[in-house]
Here is the input.
Amino acid sequence: MATTTINASKQTFARSGTKTSWSAARDATSSTTHTNYTTTQVNVTTAIEELYNSGRGGGSYIINRSFFFFDTSTIDGTITAISLKIQGVTNGGYNTRVAKSTAFGGGGGSAYANTDFNNWTTTNGLIPTPYNASNHVWSTSTNTITLNATAISDANNNDYLNLVVVGGGFDYPDTEMLLPQDLRAGIQFASTTTFPQLSITYTPTPTGYQNYPFGIGDKDYQEVNGVDKDDIEEIIGV
Here is the structure.
């Protein structure tokens, strides 16, 4: 086994804007505004947010989400475990979830567009694909979130991981907020402490000649014609 870390190559904070109904905020097909982050560290106290403010005419709702893209193509081997690491800054104790996203053009070929805001659910627009097992309680220090087998499979098969961090109490399950409250978690984007990153465990691709020359098992020979097997790339063109 080997371990490595990969920093997010794309980081975006997106806002639904103030809406007059839960469905208009949660299922908004476009964010009203978004901010991309690269190398300049910025603390965003409302990076993940679920808000309902009651009032005359039905009140108002706000949903904020944070999108991240990771390029895993440099890993020479099979990924067996992944943890997402993000530096929190405010509002510990808030429930969050990690889900699959198709923002950034899906494969990372595009910058975030406002129309990516709802690009994180299944085709019926209701049920997200989870990338972690259950709600993660947000910390104001380093948040380490274990990702599930679906995320591991996507990172192996696609050579990238495209994900979003959302509120776990209402946004993720699409449960309407009935009582006035403002639930939020802060993120340190482009952090010099813990740049949003993946901590990855993987099995390296074996090096050296891996076939069985002349029907001899791998454990039963050390060299061929005086050449150590770890230095052999091919035998007779194979």
Observations:
- The mean pLDDT is 90.
- The chain has two domains: 2-204, 209-238.
- The longest strand covers residues 42-53.
